[in-house]
Fold each of these.
Amino acid sequence: MFKKVENVVEKIEEWVISLSVILMAILLIVSVIMRVFFNHSLTFSEELGQFLLIIVSFFGIGFCVRKNKHINMSIIFDAVNKKNKRKMMILISGLSTIITAVLGILSLQYIMSVFNFGRTSPALNIPMFWFYISVTIGFFFGTIEYLRIFIMNIKNEDDVYLSSEVNIDKTSEVDDGSSIQEREG
């Protein structure tokens, strides 16, 4: 049951991120064409582009945590033994769980204040809280993913999980992002 919910959430994240990136690209192309050929710009293009960027950025939090695709500085992590790597991942995922949870709560409070003030976007005249909901959703998904990593590393004393999908014993990352197992298969 949990795996099905996880798959649905992952598909929603992929769909929202992909659609937002595609819409940003189309919006950019149309804006350039309008300015160059028709000497007229779309009044809403910059505003919509900013909102799409917010959506992509924050929806990507949970997705990137799950796939272990966030930028990281791993020189110390790479230098220590497996036991200390596990301890470091417990510390990192525990702190990240707390930080993303706090940021999620703060973003929810901000959305409530935006809602209460009745702020709307200047060009599109859409209530601003609709655009900022992705911030809270992203922090919520990130918190869940970091909590999963924390629990997985606590429960499994023999394994070190970098994410809910990446175990350092089962997959070795290579420069292009694909795993050795994927390349051999």
Note: Confidence is low (pLDDT under 50) at residues 172-185.
Amino acid sequence: MLMKKKAAIALALAATCLAGAAHASVTLSNTTTGSISSFGGGGSTTYGQVFTAPVTGVLTSFTLSLNGAVGGLYGGVGTWNGGSSFNTGYGSPLNLFHSPDVASSGPGSFTFTPNVAVNAGDNYVAYLSVIGVPGAFGAVSMPTGASGNGINYFVWNNGSSSPDGNASWNYFSNFGSATFSATFDERQGGAVPEPATWAMMLVGFGVVGAAMRARKANVRFAF
């Protein structure tokens, strides 16, 4: 009985270590400091936030907010090849995620779950857009927040074509950042257990094997 308990404890500890290694969650977030206008069918067609991935892993979710209704919109994530000074001709050359259209009937936050791979230190843009959304109207403001710690700067697009590969993004760092949060899973989809975790598992399996041998040795046959 004691051997069984030791085996169960060892395997439970190993499983806990594996679970922790596979789901190391990291979050970027800031707080609202003001707002910027105007987004929607009657204003800029795309509002985005440039961020730097804090880990190599998966962007599991991001949230952007609006101070009013624009009828409908979608969220997206793309790579970013621009800078923090006013310019055009740069933007998001590769789109990684484009959500279905969602309703925008009033002030609120919009959370999306792109589950796309990101690399630590690389820049990306998470955005809201009304391009091609039927019935989109505007315009409303977006709450803004502090920059720093991977939350880089606010960007926007006044064009009418998809942000994917669009070279008409306009941006200016003086606007700061949008109110933004994002969650990353550092090891999702291919976690490699730490050496200590493997050691714990080997101990657990060893205890299980010893318990099975002891149980076999204690078997008595009646003739």
Note: The chain has a mean pLDDT of 79.
